[in-house]
Amino acid sequence: MLLPACQRQERQPDEAKPAPVPATQPVQATASDREQAEARAIAKEAYIYAFAMLENYNTLYKQVASPTAPEYVGGFGTFRHYSQLYTPDNHDVVTPNNDTPYSWAWLDLRAEPWVVTVPKVPEGRYYVQQWVDLFTYNFAYIGSRATGNDAASYLITGPGWTGAAPKGIKQVFPSETALVMTLTRIALNGPDDIANVRKVQAGMKLQPLSAYLKTQSPPAAPAIRFPPYDADKVHSHDFIGYLNFLLQFTQPPHPSETELMQRFATIGIGPGLPFDARTLPPARLAAIDAGVADAKAEMSEKAKTMLSSNGLFGSRAFLENNYLTRAIAAEKGLYGNSIDEAWYGGYEGDGNKASLIHFSKDALPPARFFWSVTLYTLPDRFLYANELKRYSIGDRTPGLRYDADGGLTLYVGHVSPGKEKESNWLPAPAGPYSAVGRVYGPSPAAIEGKWNLPPLQPADTDTP
């Protein structure tokens, strides 16, 4: 572009021309550029770290802090029992199972520990209390596999509690976080079995330790001011505000995360710190936004490679601080059981294309308790409404027919495969779907990855 005449100077023929700048000469990054690049990298790391906690908060807010929400359980320290199997109308969590009615409860452990009492559960009936902390780590298990079906009382303790277990307590389960929840599952063997499930649910009890001991209760913890859950904000730069709120209940930090938290602090992350994006310099906000986008892209790519639950759910020790795995686990199936309790695998398909799943006789799902395949619509991952009201199929499905050689063939599609095969049909929408296989009490072969679901095949495939 030519300069205005008043600023132009004519070059004389004998003037030396300046040497050209080599095209390959790198542009030197300024200190500010390096600072924003670092902020972007930290924001990416922090969003992945926070993702599972934010998904957990969605449930916490609706169940504890939002009395008008359909999912409200009644606040802390109380069970909300469901005695019916999940239906397409239930939207408490994504990919709910349709094998075991749920019971939900949250505990606030800041003032004192809580005692969980379970009744004697008849032998042959599977149940599990999965206890989950704010990080979504499965930190405790009570139930058929872990502790048996006898009546007992257990103590759930929060960070920093150092007391002794009182008389009558079978086991103490310490939590890293002051707020915890249980997703309790009790096997339901058909509509005629509902009264039996309700009896087990009625025998489950939650008490503050002081009430259990019949002693004076300690001073109450300060009331919690829950920020309203906003999905758009949670998945933007405003995730920092939600993370800061949740970090208040994770103190002291785990020793393995001391340096991580110091790094996060450089972009405004810390327990209880306020966060207002409007106060940030534009360059810093842009860096954080870019970091969030980077995190979402990495999660999307990683999710494509994670097709079973092996290595996906568990305790902190099991996951070894792999925050990307923790995030993908929350995205694919929040509150999934640890692999010892249940194995998960799945498919994605199109209901317009009739498909089948064939298990050979020697490769049926290896379940100590039972197994199922449940179908969900995409992208919401809720149960699919259909005229049969069949949302899952498995070894407890009435009328299920095995092949002549002892194998099993299941049919998946929008249109019935015919009357002679309908007993083994799992209805699907006319479009994309996800199907999740669950094996309760998986064998070592499943746990070690030596057994997997067979592939989804076109329905015209010949089977033995």
Automatic annotation (TrEMBL):
Compositional bias per record (Basic and acidic residues), positions renumbered to this chain: 8-17
Disordered: annotated segments: 1-32
Bias (Low complexity): 22-31
InterPro entries associated with the record: DUF1214, DUF1214_C_sf, DUF1254, DUF1254_sf
Transmembrane stretches, start-end: none
Residue ranges constituting the DUF1214 domain according to the UniProt record: 349-443
Residue span, DUF1254 domain: 77-208
Stored PANTHER family: BLL3101 PROTEIN
Protein name per the record: DUF1254 domain-containing protein
